[in-house]
Amino acid sequence: MICKNCSQQFKITPDDKSVYRKFNVPEPTMCTDCRRQRRMAWRNERTLYKRKCDLCKKDMISNHHLDVPFPVYCSECWWSDKHDAVRYAQDFDFSRPFFQQFELLLNKVPRINLSASNNENCDYVNYTNYSKDCYLVYGGHHSEKCFYCWRVHDSIGCFDCGQCNNCQYSYECIDCDNCYKLVFSQMCQNCDNGYYLYNCKSCSECFMCCNLIHKKHCIFNEQYSREDYERKIKELLGMRETLQQKFQELKLKYPHKALNIVNCKDCTGDYLINCDNCKNTYSGKECKDCRNSYMNERAHDCTDGDMVGWPAELCYESISTAVNAFMNLFSSVCWTCSNIYYCDLCFNSGNLFGCVGLNRKNFCILNKQYSEDEYKNMVAKITAHMIQTGEYGEFFLMSISPFAYNETIASEHYPLTREEALNKGYKWKESREKSGTRDPEAETCIKCNKGFKILNSEKDFYKNLSVQIPRACPNCRHQDRIALRNPRHLYNRACAKCGTAIQTTYAPDRPETVYCEKCYLDMVY
């Protein structure tokens, strides 16, 4: 097949075809990456604005700018009885394409300011729940006093961390679990009081180490006495300007495991934990029978989904569909919904087609209420109409997303210039910072040259961990951490030790030494 977006060839296997038959959908017209890019253009995690609620007029933080065409309500107003999205109902017009009609509905239904709930003192967070005293945390839950983090769960006092679970008082860590006072570390479990650790497990008071297990007082993978370790650490922390470079050099010195797959069966992908029969799946946890997925958890029988689960079953071409989601197709930000198609921002509902912003509704099309029989007959006719127009089976167009392309996570994973995005018909939001408007107390990012603030509480945190105050803004620091994770692509290589053929997310032209799992485990154990 030739992707209609990037013109690259992609394969549709017999197993893929069986999935499309199960969901009763046409075969995709885009490659896996272009399909994911299209979905990601409907999720704005990190771009926040100050504005007023269009209903109660109170000040609020939102991921929607002032100039969007639709109203934006604060959480209290959106969930209240004052708001019922059925009042924006439309009749379906069989003389027009579906996406045109859906865009009209999308641009008039009020949207909620943020995807955040059950938080305390967490005004500046998004896709974050059940947390307290957090600031600029995105995609986290059950965390406290965390700042500038992405997908931190059950954690306390972490700054600038990503994809971390059950961590405390850690800084600049990514893909770490059950760690305490860990600094500038990656892919570590059950470690404490360490600096610059990579792929270490159950290590304590170690500095600049790779691939260690059950070690203490090690520096550059060499054993020290406690007294010598403490003396040497003071010397090394005084060389702050060169430590990052030394850490990158250290990671190249030691072998890397081809894939980060733990307790999985019949899976392909990377960063997988407790998964079964998941293909081309990345950053998944406790998933089964999933394909072409990213960042899913407790998802079963889901295909082409991102941030799907907690739990979800039988979802297809969807993003941010979660919390007891069942049979959610071509949908975005729908929680606790079943048997829905082409819906956005719907909750606690079932049997919806082309709806926006509904809560506790059933048998609706374009937000209009139908009887059960009327609904089924209309859905059959609309599906046939969409097949004729070539729309059925395609996710929402990027051009009608409620967000500008550079506001969304698509721009993180599939970056485009302003000109490239506009030429494709996508929205683009100009920078909020204009010449001469910068806060005189703000720092200047050494990468993007934008202003950012260092809070007093941050300064105490950095001092306690003996680390420098960051010189890059939170967004650039986030991008640097994301760049540390391997891409969502598998390459064919040979194990650098035994020569056996392996698949890995390390491209053949990368400088890392890559081992198969057996050789890697033989080395570390």
Shape: globular
Helical amount among residues, as a percent range? Answer: 10-25%
Head-to-tail CA distance between termini = 45 Å
Residue runs with pLDDT of under 50 for 5 or more positions = none
Total strands: the figure is 36
Q: Which class do the helix and strand fractions yield?
A: alpha/beta
Strand residues, percent:
25-35%
Average residue-wise pLDDT: 96
How are the strands of the biggest sheet laid out side by side?
A: 18-19-20-21-23-25-27
Characterize the quaternary organization of these chains: single chain
Give the number of helices.
12
Largest sheet geometry = 7 strands, parallel
User: Over all CA atoms, what is the radius of gyration?
Assistant: 24 Å
Explain how this protein is built.
The protein has about 525 residues and is α/β, with parallel strands linked by helices. The protein contains twelve helices and 36 strands. Strands 18-19-20-21-23-25-27 form a seven-stranded parallel beta sheet, covered by helices on one side. A seven-stranded mixed beta sheet has the order 22-24-26-28-29-30-31, with helices on one face. The protein is about 20% helix and about 25% strand. It starts with 13 loop residues before the first helix and ends with a helix. Strand 1 and strand 2 form a beta hairpin. About 45% of the residues are buried.
